[in-house]
Amino acid sequence: MNILYDERVDGALPKVDKTALLAELRERLPDLDILHQEEDLKPYECDGLSAYRTTPMLVVLPERVEQVEQLLKLCHEHQVPVVARGAGTGLSGGALPLEQGILLVMARFNRILEVNPSGRFARVQPGVRNLAISQAAAPFDLYYAPDPSSQIACSIGGNVAENAGGVHCLKYGLTVHNLLKVDILTVEGERLTLGSDALDSPGFDLLALFTGSEGMLGVITEVTVKLLPKPQVAKVLLAAFDSVEKAGRAVGDIIAAGIIPGGLEMMDNLAIRAAEDFIHAGYPVDAEAILLCELDGVEADVHDDCERVRQVLETAGATEVRLARDEAERVRFWAGRKNAFPAVGRISPDYYCMDGTIPRRELPGVLRGITELSAEYGLRVANVFHAGDGNMHPLILFDANQPGELERAEALGGKILELCVAVGGSITGEHGVGREKINQMCAQFNADELTLFHGVKAAFDATGLLNPGKNIPTLHRCAEFGAMHVHHGQMPFPELERF
Amino acid sequence: MNILYDERVDGALPKVDKTALLAELRERLPDLDILHQEEDLKPYECDGLSAYRTTPMLVVLPERVEQVEQLLKLCHEHQVPVVARGAGTGLSGGALPLEQGILLVMARFNRILEVNPSGRFARVQPGVRNLAISQAAAPFDLYYAPDPSSQIACSIGGNVAENAGGVHCLKYGLTVHNLLKVDILTVEGERLTLGSDALDSPGFDLLALFTGSEGMLGVITEVTVKLLPKPQVAKVLLAAFDSVEKAGRAVGDIIAAGIIPGGLEMMDNLAIRAAEDFIHAGYPVDAEAILLCELDGVEADVHDDCERVRQVLETAGATEVRLARDEAERVRFWAGRKNAFPAVGRISPDYYCMDGTIPRRELPGVLRGITELSAEYGLRVANVFHAGDGNMHPLILFDANQPGELERAEALGGKILELCVAVGGSITGEHGVGREKINQMCAQFNADELTLFHGVKAAFDATGLLNPGKNIPTLHRCAEFGAMHVHHGQMPFPELERF
């Protein structure tokens, strides 16, 4: 079974007769909105990772769960692969369509079904935008904590599929920590509920298993998220450093002091200058690195914590520590950080966004390693990251019009991810594996582990029709990619030993 | 494959020739400690749930991972079932042995391999006691957060297998939230590492899947836990109420005020009096219910939070709110709560400890329901629970020597669990399913969901040799038990409608 689904990935997808399928879809689902003409399909050829593009065979835009149910039954019957897609803001090609498959767009499932203030949860359809949940909960002084930078556009179904994070996940957790229940349709069109209204559920933890499974295990039809009370007060400290390593060590010092900031973010000089030029956040452009540390909670606590963090930062060698004077400045400080990616886009024709996660204590060494690799490959790297949880987003600047630069950028990106794995980290933090990092998964996991993944996949989807070619590589692919497995840092690459 | 493993449960276990197996074990693992005589096996016939007893065929006490590896390979070869056991403090019969199986006692794996203060983790063998980890981390002002009441005796391997909680899990999470990595041996004796040193891991979340899987997916050989900085200060408020429902509502009010207590526990009058007689904690014995609310963190924050909680409690109708004057009184307040089970054991010949979890907002209604059921069945029920996270531990008092009382207690327990499921809760919070609640799983899950569980089990252990008969019931068993599925409260039992 696994082999069948492996082959779908690697070019051996079964041929589907588009005309016949379209006719049958129209007959069996007469009110389903179907796109099938080239110009209508074009907008769906990629998600937020525009480097990979495929025109889907058909795009369907259902509005009711029954339609999705019938569609899946029909696809299962005819063995047609299905890729589900939310808002398409994903950065790893997780919603990349298939030439021989159906792209199932869940965008019209955009209703908030229930906001329950006493139960502190919201029941929403998968196409609801992340920020819209917090907006609907605001009248009750509640909000939904995970806040990916794309929160204005990204949908909760995609957040669940990718286990999205955000600048506040150090304190409030990833998507998986903020879910109660997910209703899904299996590949065979059966309805299932994973999780429960209670905080723990017996049996295997299928809700955690499903979260972050990138559309390979089922199609999400409803999500019940936890809501949290809005913090009374949030304050942000900005600290400047004359070296990225000092800033990296200060991150560990804050955590070691027993403080859990609402957000703890780091930017290096290149990112600082790009963001400052774009947003005018008031960043110190001469600093080698800045930290943004948000403290939230009740007034008195936040006041005390700000003082403690200030002391820690000064002891760690900060050249300047500034408390945002008012809410406007606080928002400006964050606007610089949240717009760092487009800001870097302004100073370079192209950039390649990485997403590695490392143990926090490895931050100073990995930053030094990235600097050395950057020099070696002759490409600038801007560092922007969720420092508190060790989730790095190095942005590799390049110009695709210069011969060889794209290849060099990709090679440098691969080296950075291998460095992350070598120090015990992983090849992705919050952006997912998708299509982009499928080869790097061969570095992260060995054959036994991959076989286990395939076994779990088979328990949900033995035919492999759901989002083939993403997330979990075939053993065959890894063999072709070269046996570069560096499991949990136990077998560092020779060229990485210098770090 | 699933059927084979189902049958192992229901009496169709393959016959194993004990003498031949013993001879082969001795030959292939000459330095493995093996118990095989009746009097040596007797101490292992049950875990903390003494109502279920089985004499294991053989008990093995390995000391090295290689021995476990070889043992599993041998058992796999001969298709001998294996039940792994830690300290045996579990309360749901998860480590109940098999007459035709090997009991694999991991108690001798009791070494703390590493305490890493900068990385904030500890690497330990599975037989290390929960409390011993915090003791080893204490010199660095760190500790391991989950603290089941049995923490002085229970082992971390068992904690992972059962996803153990404790009085502090409202704020600090269950075992699953405090793990980085688990090293396991598969049923075939292959070594795997689940999770990583980083906070997120790509691919499916097998670490979360494995945690709480009750020994069905693999044998734990090493655990890497997160360590947290010890709170500078911890204070406890005791609030008395003249009704359990008022106390139940006060729990919701505290959470709604945006406070996350370190612990938030509730006891009713019967439990209060039993604990007071036993421990002399200073509880108000005339109160219908008390809440214990612990606030921890830095001095100034804790002081402010105590005042806010006091106001909330008074507004909620508390007849008395008392702050523990000093550390000695704080410890005494907790000692009463932590010894509530043995305290109840002193006032009743027998008691039956339940472990249901419900949405927090359902607390008042479920408490009323339990009172009515208690009257109907003519058995006293003492309520002691982790109120903050809706994890209830009703203790049903009975006398096994009175004809019919045991049966009545079991029937009442079943009704209480069904009530939990009917309001959207679950049949277990932190004690696990084990052997005890295998039938109630038929109420919690439908056939499609159980099939998915079996599929996941098969991905790890297709032959079903690991801890058969626990945690996940067969479809056959559920059919025999009667189709009592009340999925997520959508189909409440007619007799529960009055609640």
From TrEMBL, chains A, B:
Residues 52-230 form the FAD-binding PCMH-type domain. It comes from the Bacteria. SUPFAM superfamilies: FAD-binding/transporter-associated domain-like, FAD-linked oxidases, C-terminal domain. Its EC number is 1.1.3.15. Keywords: FAD, Flavoprotein, Oxidoreductase. Its cofactor is FAD. GO terms for cellular component: glycolate oxidase complex. GO terms for molecular function: (S)-2-hydroxy-acid oxidase activity; FAD binding. PROSITE patterns: FAD_PCMH. InterPro entries: FAD-bd_oxidored_4_C (IPR004113), FAD-bd_PCMH (IPR016166), FAD-bd_PCMH-like_sf (IPR036318), FAD-bd_PCMH_sub1 (IPR016167), FAD-bd_PCMH_sub2 (IPR016169), FAD-linked_Oxase-like_C (IPR016164), FAD-linked_OxidoTrans_Type4 (IPR051914), GlcD (IPR004490). PANTHER family: GLYCOLATE OXIDASE SUBUNIT GLCD. This is Glycolate oxidase subunit GlcD. It comes from Metapseudomonas resinovorans NBRC 106553. The lineage of its organism: Bacteria, Pseudomonadati, Pseudomonadota, Gammaproteobacteria, Pseudomonadales.
